[in-house]
Amino acid sequence: MTQKSEAQKGNVTPEMENVAEKENIPIDKLVTLIAEGKVVIPKNINGNSKACGIGKDLTTKVNANIGSSSKIDDLDLEVKKAKVAVEYGADAIMDLSTGSDLIKFRKKIMNAVDVPIGTVPIYEAGVATLKKGKEIIEMDPEDIFKSIENQAKEGVDFMTLHCGINREIVEKITENKRMMGVVSRGGTFLTSWIYHNQEENPLYENYDYILEIAYENDITLSLGDGLRPGCLSDASDIPQIQELVTLGGLVKRAQDANVQVMVEGPGHMPLNQIKANMEIQKTVCYGAPFYVLGPLVTDLAPGYDHITGAIGGALAAFCGADFLCYVTPAEHLTLPNLEDVKEGVVASKIAAEAADVANGIESSWAKEREMATARKNFDWEKQFELAIDKSKPRSYKNKCSLDDDEMCAMCGEYCAVKIAKGDF
Question: What's the angle, vertex CA 285, arms to CA 283 and CA 288, rounded to 5?
């Protein structure tokens, strides 16, 4: 049973009821969108996460990546990051760990937060390969499927699987020289494996088996963009678009099998290409929810990539993206710390809200009207309550305490709202 198979039958699950109430969308409309594959609710039947709807006519959701590495392996710190991300509004958490004791870490995360949890199983297979003293290109496909099976039983809600990279596309990569090559870690694992072994991608070749696992546990497949552009110069090139077209065929197979599925997208991309990319994805991927990293709209802002990602994310969500993966100030540089996680989530939440307002989402407009009323009435507590980041505005306001609470230190007695209060 999956949320999609139940929707196909016209059955309403508790998860659908929760999403419909939270999103203020008619339940019959939501059921139809899930049945059509245009909305997913990542909720493994073995897990305990709360229901979260992603897709058409719903608010834009935000994911936060966390995870240990072989160089920085502090499980307690990563759990704190997950909690901070959820505190500031992250709708989902992805564990990208490649450090030690991955199973223990996933359990800690699942116990610490109640939002959907995503993973990239091939990372665990890669760790297992290196522990055997082998290179990634010697990875045993059995280790990949073992990771998928085990994580499904553990309760992982959605999985990034790079099923769209096949031998034909790898040949195209070698023909079309990119400035940055392949920048996706999972994508690199598979392209290198295919190239050196001259064999087909196991995830592509055994896709039906993946569908069986996903259906049995109601895992939402997040079909990875292994060939996403790693710089503006590589955006919208032949390998990226060819992989997307391949993913479209895999989406259709998943939807026909009543498996929930979404698609991942770029990446680094100039503003003028974002709209077309969103429209192409929705067309070739049968309306499946689109999950984008950024997009990052300039390559010249290391240390500020949460801003470049938010700019691209706002436009992407306005043009059809449904799920934004946050980008932190530490992107391209190091593992993010707690403050980086907060800044990344807040930036993406701002992008999501901006897009939802532009797309006419009533719940977003209601909050905007509440904020305008609070500002007009000098209701500072209400403003702090409505703010995406509730702590920073309060700290700024408290830096300069004035006798008259109906003004701030910006304008003081020349406050436009105070002068005109009651007249207009």
Answer: 105
- Other C-beta atoms within 10 Å of 118: how many? 24
Q: Check: CB of residue 292 under 8 Å from CB of residue 263.
A: no
Alpha-helical regions (H) of 155-288: 167-175, 185-197, 202-205, 207-217, 238-256, 271-284
Contacts of 23-26 spanning 24+ positions with Cβ under 8 A: 23/53, 23/57, 23/58, 23/59, 23/363, 24/362, 24/363, 25/57, 25/58
CA–CA distance, 269 with 290 (Å, rounded to integer): 15
Cis peptide before 295 (omega within 30 of 0): yes
Q: What is the mean pLDDT of residues 115-136?
A: 97
| Alpha-carbon 270 to chain mean position | 20
Contact indicator for 120, 96 with CB cutoff of 8 Å? yes
The answer to whether 136 touches 176, Cβ cutoff 8 Å, is no
Q: Are 18 and 49 in contact (CB under 8 A)?
A: no
Tokens matching residue 391: 């702590």
Q: Closest by alpha carbon to 50, among 17, 10, 95, 80?
A: 17
Go through the domains of the chain in sequence order and give each one's CATH number.
41-359 (3.20.20.540), 363-419 (no CATH)
How high does pLDDT run on average in the chain?
94
pLDDT in tens, 295-353: 999 999 999 999 999 999 999 999 999 999 999 999 999 999 999 999 999 999 999 99
Q: For 216-246, b where at least 16 C-beta lie within 10 A, e where not — what string?
A: bbbbbbbbbbbbbbbbbebbbbebbebbbeb
Q: Compute the CA torsion angle 89, 94, 100, 103 (nearest 10 deg).
A: 100
Distance CA(39)–CA(17), nearest Å, equals 14
Give strand ranges (E) for 285-374: 290-293, 323-325
Dist. CA 219–CA 277, nearest whole Å? 26
The per-residue pLDDT for range 350-370, each reduced to its tens digit, is 999 999 999 999 999 999 999
Class of residue 102 by CB neighbours under 10 A (exposed 0-12, middle 13-18, buried 19+):
buried
